[in-house]
Write a structure and sequence with these properties.
The complex is a heterodimer of chains A (193) and B (193). Chain A is an all-alpha fold and 193 residues long. Chain A has nine helices and no strands. Helix content of chain A is 72%, strand content 0%. Chain A is globular and about 55 Å long. Chain B is 57% helix and 2% strand. In chain B, strands 1-2 form a two-stranded antiparallel ribbon. The chains are: A mainly alpha (193), B mainly alpha (193).
Chain lengths: 193, 193
C-alpha cells in the first residue's frame, strides 16, 4: 500500500475531496500543536493557532499551487501566526506564571515509568529551564531552533519557511545554539539539569 | 602535537554535528576530530546540548481539538457558501458601500452648486435703511428677479413680459436688513415684540 504524498492529497483537497483533507489533518495535527506549544507556551492558544492553520489551508485550497513542499507552506503559515501571537502577547504584556501549570506532568506522559515525586519535580524544573532558555531567544532564532530540533525540518526548508537564505538559517541556528549552550551550561556540567 | 590554530571553528563543528555540511567537508571534519581532543570536546558539548534539548516534551492535542476544528471548518464552509449557495459575502459589502457613496453624493450635490440655494450676497452697510426705492427697470436690461429664482427657468412669452415689468428692489441696504429681522424671531423672547 502506497502512502499518498502531501502534494497529492492537497491536490485532491483542491478538487473537493474532504477525505484527503482529513488525512492531512491526522498527519499534521499533533506536529502543529506541539510546534505551537513550544512557540507560545499557552496550550489553549497553541490549539487555537493550530486550528487556524488548518482553517487557512482549507480556505486557501483553491489557490494552492504545487510549486513548493506542502510542509513548507504549512509551516510558513504556522510560523507567521506564531510570531504574530508572540508579538501580540508582548504588546499586551501578557505573561504566563512560571509555575508549570501549562506543562503536562512527565508522569502523565510516561505512565509506565512511575517516577518518584522528586524525579517528577526535577523533570518539571528541567523543562522549565529549557523552555525559559528557548523563550529568551530572539523570535527568528526560536522559530529556527524549534523547527530544526523538534519538528525535524531541514535547514534548507527552514530557509524557505522564514524567507531567508540557507546561509542565514545556518548562522541563525549556530547563534541560537550558542545562546542555549551558554544558558544551560551550568546545568549540563553535573550531568543533569 | 597539534597547534591551536589548526583547530576547527566552532561554527564548522556545529554544522557537522547538526548534519548541515556537505559530505566531503564532513569527512574532513571527521578526520580532524580523530586527532584533535579540543575539537572533540566542543563536538561533545553540542551533542550533550542536543540531548538536554530532547528532554523538553510538550503535550499533544486535546480530546476536543477535532470537534472544535470541525465546527470552525463547517462555519467557514457556510460562510463561503452564503445565501442560495452564492458567495454574497464577497461582493455584498463593496456593493453596499458603493450604494452609500452614491446616495451621499446625491444628497450633497445640490448644496454644492453655488448660488442655487444660498441667498445673494448683499453689500453690508452701517447706514440704516431709508425705505425701498422702487423704480421701473429699463426694457433693455435683463431681469435680475428672474435670476434669483433660478437661471435655468424659461418662462413663456407672457410671463417674460410680466417679469420685465416687475419693479426692481435696488436698495440692498434694505435687503440686508430683512436678513437681520428674520433672525430676530429665533434669537430670544424679545423678538416676540
Amino acid at each position: 500500500m502506497t502512502v499518498d504524498s502531501d502534494l497529492e492529497l492537497m491536490l485532491r483537497v483542491r478538487s473537493g475531496d474532504a477525505d484527503s483533507f482529513e488525512v492531512l489533518l491526522n498527519r499534521y495535527r499533533a506536529r502543529l500543536v506541539s510546534y505551537f506549544s513550544r512557540m507560545v507556551r499557552d496550550p489553549a492558544l497553541a490549539e487555537d493557532l493550530a486550528q487556524e492553520v488548518f482553517l487557512r489551508v482549507y480556505k486557501a485550497r483553491n489557490r494552492y499551487r504545487p510549486d513548493a513542499r506542502f510542509t513548507t507552506w504549512l509551516y510558513r503559515i504556522a510560523t507567521n501566526l506564531a510570531l504574530n501571537a508572540i508579538r501580540d502577547r508582548k504588546v499586551d504584556g501578557y505573561a504566563v506564571a512560571d509555575d508549570g501549570f501549562d506543562m503536562e506532568p512527565a508522569a502523565a506522559r510516561i505512565p509506565d515509568k512511575k517516577p518518584t515525586a522528586e524525579q517528577e519535580l526535577m523533570d518539571c524544573d528541567r523543562e522549565k529551564l529549557i523552555r525559559g532558555a528557548v523563550e529568551d531567544l530572539p523570535d527568528n532564532q526560536r522559530a529556527a531552533v524549534i523547527l530544526h530540533k523538534y519538528q525535524d525540518v531541514d535547514y534548507r526548508q527552514i530557509a524557505k519557511v522564514l524567507n531567508v537564505s540557507e546561509g542565514a538559517v545556518k548562522s541563525l541556528l549556530f547563534r541560537a545554539y550558542e545562546n542555549l549552550r551558554r544558558r544551560l551550561e551550568p546545568f549540563m556540567r553535573g550531568g543533569q539539569l | 602535537m597539534k597547534k591551536e590554530t589548526s583547530c576547527l571553528e566552532k561554527e564548522q563543528i556545529f554544522y557537522f554535528v547538526q548534519g548541515m555540511m556537505e559530505a566531503r567537508e564532513a569527512e574532513r571534519v571527521r578526520c580532524h576530530l580523530a586527532d584533535c581532543l579540543a575539537c572533540r570536546q566542543v563536538t561533545e558539548g553540542y551533542q550533550k546540548l542536543d540531548l538536554v534539548l530532547d528532554s523538553w516534551r510538550v503535550g499533544g492535542p486535546s480530546a476536543w481539538f477535532e470537534s472544535t476544528l470541525q465546527a470552525k471548518l463547517a462555519s467557514a464552509t457556510d460562510e463561503r457558501r452564503g445565501f442560495f449557495g452564492l458567495p454574497w459575502g464577497r461582493w455584498l459589502a463593496p456593493a453596499s458601500l458603493a450604494a452609500m457613496v452614491v446616495f451621499g453624493m446625491v444628497m450633497v450635490h445640490p448644496w454644492r452648486q453655488p448660488g442655487r440655494f444660498s441667498p445673494p450676497v448683499a453689500p453690508t452697510s452701517s447706514r440704516p435703511a431709508q425705505g425701498v426705492q422702487v423704480q421701473s427697470r429699463p426694457q433693455a436690461q435683463p431681469a435680475p428677479a428672474a435670476s434669483l429664482q433660478g437661471a435655468d427657468a424659461k418662462p413663456a412669452d407672457d410671463e417674460l413680459t410680466l417679469y420685465k415689468n416687475l419693479p426692481v428692489l435696488e436698495n440692498y441696504d434694505m435687503l440686508s436688513n430683512f436678513d437681520v429681522l428674520s433672525e430676530l424671531a429665533t434669537a430670544d423672547g424679545k423678538a416676540a415684540d
